[in-house]
């Protein structure tokens, strides 16, 4: 009996303190439709628009969890650049997190890293080329004294109300006072596996652009006016929300999702996944390695020329909701 009690205690201790990889996903949407570049959408003002770029920084992510504890990373290695095809980030591996209650994060580059006056600032050329604060295309940097652009968006908009996007616009905003912090957002986590927690947010682009007349903006780069207003929308409008089915039970999804390794190629297969629309393959640092949309309920892809390591495969439905997940290892 004593041995049984000791063994049970050890098992419980292992479960509680085992490492969990935590991912944060900012799925981009317009009017509840998963966003893609160069696609026409209708804004809240009724005007048609499409975007050829939409990028922003996320930083200072803090997780409130397990009875009031807080965990997070506040160094420059945990500033993230969110892009239309790269919107999932790996927050790290944690041994002390089981239940996440709230999420705090900043949109933009924190002032301590942003300009020459920041306590942790450094010249952009000193960052490794893979670092989010290094040079980007399109550029996210205005200059050593002015700092980074917290969010950039641009494309075409209908200027003459004929239903066709015909006039270019850009909002590239900066300003060392314009970062916006989303405080203590309530969170429903997805327990994807015993060692992985996902947090899914919808980034509602039409809400981010609310009350801005895109047809009269032109090419506006700066820290005031509409460039300030669009960042204010992060706090005043439902720009970041959670889907109602954020806490999916993955075991209840029908169909099969599996992989096999054959002759130096990794084959990923899915069968009878009725709602499958998009396949995403993520590296362990949260980078999207593959993304295929408009897939059928049965299909397969072959991964070639990938670095050795662990990868995460996800199947999403047309609303961008995660329906199946698969961990693979490439030798």
User: Number of DSSP helices?
Assistant: 5
Overall 3D geometry? globular
Helical amount among residues, as a percent range?
Answer: 10-25%
How much β-strand is present in the residues?
35-45%
Structural class: mainly beta
Tell me the layout of helices and strands:
Blueprint: H1 2-17, E1 20-30, E2 33-34, E3 41-42, E4 48-65, E5 69-72, E6 80-82, E7 88-94, E8 100-107, H2 111-114, E9 141-143, E10 147-148, E11 151-157, E12 167-173, E13 180-186, E14 190-193, E15 196-204, H3 205-208, H4 214-217, E16 219-222, H5 226-236, E17 240-241, E18 256-262, E19 265-271, E20 278-283, E21 288-293, E22 299-303, E23 309-316, E24 322-330
Parallel strand pairs: 1-15, 12-16
Antiparallel strand pairs: 1-2, 1-7, 3-4, 4-5, 4-6, 4-8, 4-11, 8-13, 9-10, 11-12, 14-15, 15-17, 18-19, 19-22, 20-21, 20-23, 23-24
Short description:
With 331 residues, this protein is mostly beta strands. The protein folds into two domains: 20-241, no CATH class; 250-330, Immunoglobulins (Immunoglobulin-like, Sandwich). The protein is built from five helices and 24 strands.
Can you offer a commentary on this structure?
The protein has 331 residues and is mostly beta strands. It folds into two domains: 20-241, no CATH class; 250-330, Immunoglobulins (Immunoglobulin-like), CATH 2.60.40. 12% of the residues lie in helices and 45% in strands. It has five helices and 24 strands. The strands form five sheets. Strands 3, 4, 5, 6, 8, 11, 12, 13 and 16 form a nine-stranded mixed beta sheet that branches. Strands 1, 2, 7, 14, 15 and 17 form a six-stranded mixed beta sheet that branches. The longest helix is centred in the first third of the chain and has 16 residues, at 2-17. The radius of gyration is 21 Å and the shape is globular. Mean pLDDT is 87; it is low at 1-16 and 249-253.
């Amino acid at each position: 009996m004593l041995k049984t009690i000791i063994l049970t205690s050890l098992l419980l201790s292992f479960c509680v303190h085992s490492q969990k990889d935590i991912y944060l996903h900012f799925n981009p949407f317009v009017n509840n439709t998963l966003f893609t570049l160069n696609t026409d959408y209708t804004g809240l003002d009724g005007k048609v628009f499409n975007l050829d770029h939409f990028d922003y920084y996320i930083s200072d992510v803090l997780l409130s969890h397990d009875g009031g504890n807080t965990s997070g990373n506040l160094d420059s290695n945990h500033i993230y650049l969110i892009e239309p095809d790269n919107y999932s980030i790996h927050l790290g591996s944690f041994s002390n997190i089981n239940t996440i209650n709230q999420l705090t994060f900043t949109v933009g580059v924190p002032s301590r890293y942003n300009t020459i006056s920041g306590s942790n600032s450094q010249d952009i050329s000193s960052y490794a080329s893979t670092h989010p604060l290094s040079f980007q295309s399109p550029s996210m940097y205005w200059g050593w004294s002015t700092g980074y652009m917290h969010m950039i968006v641009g494309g075409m908009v209908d200027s003459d109300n004929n239903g066709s996007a015909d006039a270019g616009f850009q909002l590239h905003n900066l300003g060392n006072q314009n970062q916006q912090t989303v405080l203590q957002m309530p969170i429903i986590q997805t327990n994807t596996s015993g060692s992985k927690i996902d947090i899914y947010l919808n980034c509602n682009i039409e809400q981010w652009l609310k009350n801005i007349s895109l047809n009269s903006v032109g090419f506006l780069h700066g820290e005031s006016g509409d460039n300030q207003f669009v960042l204010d929308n992060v706090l005043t409008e439902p720009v970041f929300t959670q889907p109602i089915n954020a806490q999916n039970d993955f075991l209840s999804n029908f169909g099969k999702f599996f992989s096999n390794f054959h002759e130096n190629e990794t084959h990923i297969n899915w069968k009878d996944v009725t709602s499958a629309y998009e396949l995403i393959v993520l590296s362990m640092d949260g980078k999207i390695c593959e993304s295929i949309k408009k897939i059928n309920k049965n299909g397969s892809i072959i991964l070639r020329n990938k670095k050795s390591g662990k990868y995460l495969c996800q199947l999403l439905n047309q609303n961008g909701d995660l329906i199946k997940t698969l961990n693979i290892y490439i030798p």
